[in-house]
């Protein structure tokens, strides 16, 4: 006896611990708004499609009603007529109303219209049921209310509430028509459909939530990985791959527009000696500081500073003439020296400095951006040969 009571208490405690969220999966708060918008979009699309199909179906059914006029009572015929007419008017109003509020982004109003659309279709479908000719009216009720309950992508609580309304409306109408509750009766059939629909919808909803959340997380992870693959880990500047993709795009664009492109190869002077004297950690700190200085000096969105490798950086300046690019490069050299990062092993300055090699050209069919990079690299070599902490410009016309 005590063992049985213990089992009962244990079962009651387990039931108490079951929450609504244990049955239906919960969308994370940060994704809830996006998920709700997706549900609304799906519901609007499905309701519009179902409404249009229902109206077309009703219109096509009218020749059948006319041919069977002698089999249908006048009262039921009138109810079917007014039901179809009402459904047509409700559907016709649904389209412009949802279009109007969709353009203005009125989410709450759109949900209200969807719920009202369902409720009106419940009433319209139930109206012919208030008749003794139960078979035809039962068919209309099933094909109408159940579809309008099951098809929309509503939230689970709304869906279950709609099904409860559907089931009790069904029972009330059958009771009005003096139908008894028995095995194989319409009530039992409706109850079975009701329970099956709830179970299917819960599984479907949980699967949809899982797919949505997993897809979002995978996309977010892919975006993060893509960003990492295009970013230098140390300096947080764009890396070599990102630069090459950008310069290829800019080169093609400027080729079409017949506008100049400038590339600057930038190298930290005596950086190996800096590392040897102060250590690699200090060298990393110096690179980070220089990278931030270079990035801050770039003002236009079209310009790009990237780490090309080691202590070498590269700057891309589209849509700019050579003289303006030269002034930019000289200011860049001065900005780095003005940071006054001590360099105990420099043969040129007591501070860390940079050398810049610059090349400028207008893209055409006879040159390429790889040749432009090569000319800028040669200019950088000349800048190092001429004393460093300076800018050298390639005067060679970039051509094959």
Please give a structural write-up:
- With 400 residues, the chain is α+β, with helices and mostly antiparallel strands.
- The chain is 67% helix and 8% strand.
- The chain contains 13 helices and 5 strands.
- Helix 4 runs antiparallel to helix 5, helix 5 runs antiparallel to helix 6 and helix 7 packs antiparallel against helix 8.
- The longest helix has 44 residues.
- The mean pLDDT is 79.
Task: Give a summary of the structure in a few sentences.
The chain has helices at residues 2-17, 20-23, 29-67, 74-103, 107-126, 134-150, 156-176, 186-229, 240-257, 271-278, 280-297, 322-338, 369-385, and strands at residues 261-268, 304-309, 312-318, 354-361, 391-393. It has 400 residues and is α+β, with helices and mostly antiparallel strands.
Q: Mean pLDDT, rounded to whole units?
A: 79
Based on DSSP secondary structure assignment, what is the total number of beta strands? Answer: 5
Amino-to-carboxy terminus distance: 98 Å
Instruction: Indicate the percent of residues in helices.
Output: 55-70%
Quickly count the domains: 2
Low-confidence stretches: none
**Could you say which overall geometry the principal axes of the C-alpha atoms support?**
elongated
Could you spell the SSE succession in H and E letters? Answer: HHHHHHHHHEHHEEHEHE
Count of helical stretches: 13
